[in-house]
Amino acid sequence: MTRLPDGSRIRAVLLDLDDTLLDNRSGVAGAWDHISAMLAADHPFSVEDARTEIDRVTDWFWDDPERHRTGRLDLLAARRVILGRVLDTLGVEDPALVERAAWEYGEHRFANLRLEDEALDVLSEVRRRVGRVGLVTNGASDAQRRKLERFSLERHFDHVQIEGELGVGKPESEAYAHALRCVEARPDETLMVGDSFEADVLGALGAGLHAAWIDAHGRGRPPGEAPRAFHTLASIGDLLALLSPA
Hints:
This protein is an alpha/beta fold. The chain contains eleven helices and eleven strands.
């Protein structure tokens, strides 16, 4: 068993996947640049026009909480909506191109995924120090399982929980309650670690867990207020410094 800096004993650690263990964001810009060029290749608008419209529509789509919830469970469908709206705004109707671009964007993103530095070493050491390690990730089953298989990550966890399989995701309290039952730990002796302030920090704190926010974008401060104290890490590599021997 280990302790947090405030003396709290920790028997289990729950970890997010995207932008916690995997760098899932750094390839976004390059993927959309690639798709912008694809869209503009045979149509009367520029690559720059396509890219500008993609940014606008992407923000529109993901800023809505309900679209965000349903979209992350079917990313291909979400991309179809985004790309269809982009082409419509640019005055083009080309369903075949929408389908091809939606699929190719996903493949481009997947090809450029990488493990965060020190992720595997941290996972091994957390298991040695704490004993119980779980993965709690939002998203669709097929997409998240594909990532786990590519990097052989599942073997590092006592419990793998995917929103699309369980039917509920972070920040819902039931998602945390289920994970706690599976790792056989109480909320007050469990630490949740992830990059989403809402899902991984506010959700965990609301369910009674401890939380560590990974400031993956270098903001320097969280994007909101929390009901009680939490920890801030620059990357997953900082997690071990947070977990001291009991």
